[in-house]
Amino acid sequence: MPLSTGEKIGPYEIVAPLGAGGMGEVYRARDTRLDRDVAIKVVSQTLAKDPDRLRRFEQEARSVAALNHPNILGIHDIGTYQGAPYLVSELLEGETLREKLMNGALPARRAVEYALGIACGLAAAHDKGIIHRDLKPENVFITREGRVKILDFGLAKLVRPDPDTDTTQVTRDTVTQPGVVVGTVGYMSPEQVRGESIDGRSDIFSFGALLFEMLTGKRAFKKDTTAETMTAILREEPPELTETGWQGPLGLQRILARCLEKNVERRFQSASDLAFAIESLSGTGVTQKVAEPAKEKATWWPWAVGAAALALVAAGAWLWGRNSATRAQPKFTRLTYRKGFLSGARFAKGGETVVYSAQWEDQPMRIYTVRVEFPQSTRVDLPAGALLAISPGGDVEVAEDIVPHVNFASGTLAEAQLSGGTPRGQLNGVIAADYAPDGKSRAVSRIANQRVQLEYPIGKVIYSTSGYIDFVRISPDGQLVAFAEHPVYDDDRGWVAIVDQQGHHKQLTGEYPTLQGMAWSRMGKEVWYTASEASTDRLLYGVNLAGTKREILAAPYGMRIMDVSADGRVLVSSQDERSEIYGIDPVTKKERSGLEWFNGSGLGDITPDGKAIALSEWGGPAGPLYLVAYRKLDGSAPTQLGEGSTPRFSPDELTVAAPLLSMPPKVVVHPIGIGQSRRIAVGDLLQVTSVAWFPDGKHLLLHGAGEGQPLHTYQLDLESGKVQPVGTADFVGVAVASDGKRIAGRNGSRGAEVFDLATEKTQAIPGIDPRDSIDKWTEDGQALLVTVSTPLEGEVYRVDVTTGKRSLLQKVELAEKAGSVIPLKICYAEKSKTYAYTGRRILCSLYLVDGLE
What we know:
Blueprint: E1 8-9, E2 12-21, E3 24-31, E4 36-43, H1 45-48, H2 51-65, E5 75-81, E6 84-90, E7 94-96, H3 97-101, H4 108-127, E8 130-131, E9 140-143, E10 148-150, E11 157-161, E12 168-170, H5 190-193, H6 200-216, H7 226-235, H8 250-259, H9 271-282, H10 300-326, E13 331-334, E14 340-347, E15 353-360, E16 366-371, E17 374-379, E18 386-390, E19 395-404, E20 409-417, E21 424-435, E22 442-448, E23 451-455, E24 461-465, E25 468-474, E26 480-486, E27 495-500, E28 505-507, E29 514-520, E30 526-532, E31 539-544, E32 549-553, E33 558-564, E34 570-584, E35 591-592, E36 601-606, E37 612-617, E38 627-632, E39 639-643, E40 648-649, E41 655-660, E42 666-671, E43 678-681, E44 687-693, E45 699-705, E46 712-717, E47 723-725, E48 732-736, E49 742-746, E50 752-756, E51 761-764, E52 773-777, E53 783-789, E54 793-800, E55 806-813, E56 825-829, E57 834-850
Antiparallel strand pairs: 1-2, 2-3, 3-4, 4-6, 5-6, 7-9, 8-11, 9-10, 11-12, 13-57, 14-15, 15-16, 16-17, 18-19, 19-20, 20-21, 21-22, 22-23, 23-24, 25-26, 26-27, 27-28, 29-30, 30-31, 31-32, 33-34, 34-35, 34-57, 36-37, 37-38, 38-39, 40-41, 41-42, 42-43, 44-45, 45-46, 46-47, 48-49, 49-50, 50-51, ...
């Protein structure tokens, strides 16, 4: 509906037209009540007759008016004029980001500042449950003062929290439903292209496309036709920044790559995290203002002023670069030089001696000391064991009789003197421990009653979990305990948490795909930890008690923080982690090595004929949900099947099933050949650690747990999605017999049992030790394949479920033993009488780092 100059809409007097958009015309107007200039958007008469478009217009007004943020266009009023709704907003002077990009790429520093403003605006909107859905350069405005403003939330999709869960659900009156594609081609997320339900992470993908264009001057996904562009969004990756000739901070490439991940689980999970990453990269604080010179007439003196300003900018940049170049960098001093795994290290009193435990070469784990000024290690006269903690007075806590698990170890807690002697055993099943500042009280995490509990002081349980707790550290004031909480028992994914002596628990970070190592900062204001958001190469971070995190140190290798001294020096261990898979080549019949994929491969299953394996990969480019691959043992390249962990072949060997470590968890079924992968919900379960097939290929046996519950066994119907518990309360089943009626597993005391689905009764299995690993049933249904393994060797037995008779089927031994501290995983192929196995070696060096703040 065109309006004339001077025409009045309520208290607003039209001054001049500003432009037109998909939803109507925009005018400059004067607010006669408050004596200010405003912008008015009026819906066209054609659109005013469309109830859906009107609803979207009103939705825009309600959603944006609820926001009050400097990076979002402010809404002042809403009304109706001659049957058409109108919206009154602040009047902006400047130009859109699209207009700025007409001259090509932006300088890196300016692009970062604009990106930070956009991310902050999105974070504010997402916090209110508002998704933009159409983020593009036309919808980003740069004011004359350099302020970023996000425009047009007309396509915003409102979501609200479900009061009974931590997730969100689409409101019933949402205009755009799943299956309807809304947005602008070229900036859509993959899930938008597919017409799926979306959340704020879709905006993050669009933000990535916009950031790519700001940095390169080119669109991330630009093809000749709309269909080709949409296909590129689904299947292709934009070029690396360095491939476009761009030069700037390499950290931008990491941020950009995470934004443009096809899988929403691998992107930044919130715009707040994205803004934090950009702010950390810029190093300028939340300063989103970018001064731009006002346009002047073309006389000689602006050129002179401009030249002088340019000289000042150049001088400032030179000084900034000079100061950056001469700024003190962290100093690394290597303290160990032998080959093997280093489990823990602490500063002794005074800070000039370091105590550590390591498994060098093929020797057992021992305690050593090393002086800072000369890196010659001396073995302490103590029995084999791992260092857990050291007191201010020089007492040490060690773990003896170590039981290695997949990503941690437990043992008997014993106290000893550094001078040597016989340690005094005190507590079984201990994973981690620390002394309080008084040198007397201690905090421990230990395995008890099928759970892992945190005690401080010993005997007082202040927290427990069905996962596990590691890297326990007491704050310098003795009031808080920081620890790494891992929700899955056989995985090092997790988050940083704290708890006080009254049991008040707080999670400080989001979940990382890998988290190992922790210490309090020198002043006790932060918890320092080593974790990774993308691969096995962990970085050093700090997080304060409010949950604000920052990156402290990055290195081109994995590392683990061990300790922080009173004067701020830091002990870190470099970690070269190597997963190695071996198997019998079906052609040569000889053992073949090099069957791993990247640097985090884990064997999941082997086909009965011994010709192929299914493996999971958590290293390299795997991402937080890991990847599943199929690989033939003839040495041919692996085939990526999709996301998941610890895969198992179906009875017909045409698919694999695997837990999906999402939140909430799911089970994924991948076809090995053609076909579509399926994600299947698992009811109310909050974790699923393993799966096994029923012989009908229509049901899965799950090992998982609900909220506040211990691990248990469940049956999943793949067609209906129904999940129901199986077995007695303390039964954990792991393998289904070929008749589909019997399940082998463990009871709460680690005793081996068979549960009969028909009679719902259990029968003890003789001849299986608590440390034996039950793999699967033999084809005749009379026995179980059982593995007995250490980090250096392993054996596969056939154990008769009735008599307990054990028959040795296979024995394997690692040729290279240095750094192997995790039990071998062995899969035996009964038909071919062959095998495959995984070994994980972690080679470490200990460093002293000065200069970290």
